[in-house]
Amino acid sequence: MPVKVMIVDDHAVVRAGLRALIKGEPGMELVGEATNGEDALQIASQMQPDIIVLDLSLPGMDGIQITRIIKQEQPRVRILILTVHEDAALLREALRAGASGYILKHAAENELISAIHSVLLEDIYIHPKMIRSLLIEPKTPKVTESSQVELLTPRETDILLLIVQGYTNRQIAEELSLSVRTVEGHRSNLMEKLGLHSRVELVRYAREHGLTNRNVNS
User: Fold this and answer.
1) Which domains does the chain have, with CATH numbers?
2) Could you tell me the CA-to-CA distances from 63 to 73, 132, 175, 182, 210 in Å, in that order?
3) What strands lie across the sheet with 3-8, from one edge to the other?
């Protein structure tokens, strides 16, 4: 039986390269492609892939959220994160969410194939450039008085903290007794204030400013 592979990336050029690579590899079968989180969840549920090659930065739901949801629904699926982010915090976050590997997009084609085979053998694959970062204890930065965090309202800060913890908009609405539309409005406002565009960037920002040690409504 061929290994069933699914790819998730919002860039057509990246998908085309992955498609050609997988189709040219003996013993592998491409069973689905997605460009966003919702489609990824639906296709993964339908096709039951053995491995998903997943980008971190996607419109709407990001790769860490997708990983967490898919691993809850299909624990046997192996997820290999393919990203441009050389970020130790995101690497740790992805592994905690259930990812089996983390490889950078500039990796050679043969390295990507090796990574796929490694995670299929239930090993953890980490791009060599990122391994050292796992051995370094992360430092908790101090929040400076000039931080943009001060621009956020208490409610926006609560929502930021929940986003970083992996809550969806609906879960945040339930947690804070708000409507989903209200949560979406607050989320849009806080991202505009901080000049950020995705949950991946929010996670990095929160870690850089020590927000992950704070509690909602504290």
Assistant:
1) 3-134 (3.40.50.2300), 148-213 (1.10.10.10)
2) 15, 23, 22, 24, 22
3) 28-34, 3-8, 51-54, 78-83, 101-104, 125-126
Average pLDDT, stretch 4-32? 93
**Global pTM?**
0.67
Distance (Å, whole) CA 165 – CA 9: 23
* Nearest 10 degrees: Cα torsion 36, 114, 2, 73: -40
Q: What is the mean pLDDT of residues 197-201?
A: 74
User: 62-71, 87-96, 121-130, 147-156: lowest mean pLDDT where?
Assistant: 147-156
CA distance 84 to 56: 8
Class of residue 102 by CB neighbours under 10 A (exposed 0-12, middle 13-18, buried 19+): buried
* Residues 6 or more apart whose Cβ sits within 8 Å of residue 35: 8, 9, 10, 15, 58, 59
Record the tokens describing residue 158, joined without a space. 């609560």
Within a 10 A sphere around the Cβ of 40, how many other Cβ atoms? 27
Q: Which two tokens stand for residue 85?
A: 């982010």
Residues 209 and 215: their CA atoms lie apart, in Å, by: 14
